[in-house]
Amino acid sequence: MSTEKQKVVLASGNKGKLNELQQMLDGLNFEVLPQSDFNVSSVPETGLTFVENALIKARHASKVTGLPAISDDSGLEVDALNGQPGIYSARYAGEDADDADNNAKLLEALKDVPSEQRTARFHSVLVYMRHESDPTPLICHGSWEGSILTEAAGVGGFGYDPLFWVPEKGCASAELTKEQKNAISHRAKAKDQLLVQLKALLDV
User: Fold this and answer.
1) How far apart are CA 165 and CA 143, in angstroms?
2) Phi, psi for residue 93 in degrees, rounded to 5
3) pLDDT digit string, tens, across residues 140-192
4) Active-site positions?
5) pTM (2 d.p.)
């Protein structure tokens, strides 16, 4: 096997995601590079599902760079809100909204909903495309069941973590250590699937 690592572009400028993926793919002869290294612009996420948007981002990055690409699309689905905020999780309270804005809007939307009806889950879809015209990209989906609290708890994590109750741990996601979260989260489950599929694809 060649000792030269296969370059793969991450369709994100998020340094945290880059570090996590690099660690995950360690041993698979991959070098994960952020799309910012290639001046890849962000692409409009016009899909109506996490899968569609992940494919859009991966295809765009692969087209611009000529390299295989990995992308991630994730968000929160709340049953009492018919699946909202869903694919709009990061911009639920508006295009320029921050985590606090989004959390405030979610609490307001659920203010009259009793605790037993506040069920929710995080979703993460990871996509691997060998090239922009890849007809059979790897698509991995992980979900994480929980419910929405009536007020924020904890200071860790990001996004909706302070409002997401994790039943198996008996606390909010924002009260978990980074190690705990990364072992059981929606993204961790999607990554585990991707690792298995990549190993099969690369026959390692």
Assistant:
1) 14
2) -95, 10
3) 999 999 999 999 999 998 999 999 999 999 999 999 998 899 899 999 999 99
4) 73
5) 0.91
